[in-house]
Amino acid sequence: MKKPTLAIGIPAHNEGKNIGSLLESILKQQQTFYVLESVIVVCDGCADNTVSVVKEFTQNHRYIKLLAFNKRLGKSVALNKIYALCKSDFLLTFDADVVLERSIEIELMIKEMLRDDKINLVGGRFILVKQKTLMGKLSYVSFVSFEDAFLKLNGGNNFFALVGAASLIRKRLYKSFTYPKATISDQNYLFAMALRIDQRGFRVAKDTRILMRPVSTFNDWRTLGARSVVADKENIAHFLGKGILQRYYMPRSLYFKSLLKWFFKTPFYTTGAIAMNIFIRAFPYRKAVHTDGTWDLTHSSKETIVSEQSQD
To answer: Cross-referenced Gene3D superfamilies, in alphabetical order (predicted)?
Structure first.
């Protein structure tokens, strides 16, 4: 049986601290079930050392390609460029601030895609790195308690489960659309496009271990919340209509059970996480999101990740 071909796309804006670690982890991946054809890095107006870090990899690995925009145009523009350049059977996009913990992560995502020809989109499962600050620990509990709920909701086939930092896309999906100008909710737009082809066309590769660093400062949490809690929904409704917001429904009983589980595990940090989430909803930080498809960056989530930092 012929192995499917794979391209990897990485949109990056000022990711010099971690993109080298991501590329190193990609180079270590096993290729039993696929053939890696290219790695395309699009630097979106980078003002740090991202370009120079990637260039070092292009010198030793010809299939790693670098494209650099002169100014920041937004993640959706970078993704559109990657989609246009890619010709492989599958496209796997990564945010530049993650790392693949083991050599089997991509294979696990490919295997999930190959289970059923109706599957057009597979999301990765994320493991947060260890946190030392109070706000970082609250952020960790906030994520894992919500993850417990969204992985159970509709078997994991829901908007929340596609985090967007690792998305495996079948060719018939990534060639079927482009992101509208000023899209900030790219993962939600991608999920909606997958639903148009097949309502059952999304899966989460639940056994993957893709390392991600949560925000660990008060200001970064507010900045992230401005986009993920408020602006994402407004943005997707603008392009696809308010009816799409029905897909954002999370049953209170399901989420409450998850919070209760984590409260018994760690009552202090769960209570703090709940308080922070109430605060960012009551006092949204709207200045963090712009009208051109860009947003203010968080800084505490951009530090270098090493595999030893994983937190179960």
So the answer is: Spore Coat Polysaccharide Biosynthesis Protein SpsA, Chain A
pLDDT confidence of residue 311: 56
pLDDT of residue 173: 98
User: DSSP assignment of 4-50, as one string?
Assistant: PEEEEEEEESS-TTTHHHHHHHHHT---SS-EEEEEEEEEES--SSH
**Cα gap 237→244, rounded to integer Å:** 6
**Residue 296 contacts residue 289 (beta carbons within 8 Å):** yes
How far is residue 57 from each of residues 27, 39, 54, 66, 178, measured CA to CA in Å?
Answer: 10, 10, 5, 10, 29
Structural element, H or E, at residue 206:
strand 202-212
Dist. CA 266–CA 260, nearest whole Å: 10
Token pair, residue 221, equals 């949490």
Read off the pLDDT of residues 64-102 as tens digits, 9 standing for 90 and up. 999 999 999 999 999 999 999 999 999 999 999 999 999
Tell me how far apart the alpha carbons of residues 167 and 179 are, in angstroms, rounded to a whole number. Answer: 15
DSSP letters spanning 127-142:
EEBP--SHHHHHHHHH
Burial label for 132, CB within 10 Å (0-12, 13-18, 19+), is exposed
pTM of the model: 0.94
pLDDT higher than threshold 80 for residue 143 = yes
- CB–CB of 43/13 below 8 Å? yes
Q: How far apart are the first and last CA of the chain?
A: 37
pLDDT exceeds cutoff 80 at 308: no
Buried b (16+ CB within 10 A) or exposed e, 286-311: eebbeeebbbbebebbbeebeeebbe
Structure token digits, residue 242: 């308010």
